[in-house]
């Protein structure tokens, strides 16, 4: 039973060449960046002169990070 639980936690990280903790750190970083981009976009919605390129810049960097990871595994 415990082996099945451990396998469930390790299966997906292994498919992207990471340990559980490496994958957790990467996913947590992306989650924080998503909150930051969302917050900047919400402020920009109310104050159009604020954070004009912040959210899009964060999203572009995140996409570049994902592309680099995908290409590195090939």
Structure overview:
With 74 residues, this protein is an all-alpha fold. The chain has one domain. The protein has three helices and no strands. Helix 2 packs antiparallel against helix 3. 1% of the residues are buried.
SSE inventory with pairings:
Elements: H1 2-15, H2 20-46, H3 54-73
Helix pairs in contact: 2-3
Distance, first to last CA: 34 Å
Query: How would you describe the shape?
Result: elongated
Q: Which whole number gives the mean pLDDT?
A: 91
- What level of helicity do the residues show? over 70%
Number of helices: 3
Question: Structural class given helices, strands, pairing?
Answer: mainly alpha
Assembly form of the protein: single chain
> Biggest sheet: strands, sense, closure?
none
Taken in chain order, the helices and strands follow as HHH
Q: C-alpha Rg, in Å?
A: 17 Å
Note the beta-strand portion.
Answer: under 5%
Uncertain runs are none
Total number of domains: 1
Number of strands: 0
Write a concise synopsis of the structure shown:
The chain has 74 residues and is mostly helical.
Question: Which features characterize this protein?
Answer:
82% helix, 74 residues, mainly alpha
């Amino acid at each position: 039973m415990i082996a099945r639980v451990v396998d469930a936690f390790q299966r997906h990280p292994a498919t992207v060449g990471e340990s559980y903790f490496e994958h957790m750190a990467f996913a947590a970083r992306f989650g924080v960046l998503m909150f930051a981009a969302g917050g900047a976009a919400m402020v920009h919605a109310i104050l159009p002169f604020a954070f004009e390129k912040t959210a899009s810049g964060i999203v572009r960097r995140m996409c570049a990070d994902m592309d680099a990871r995908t290409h590195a595994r090939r």
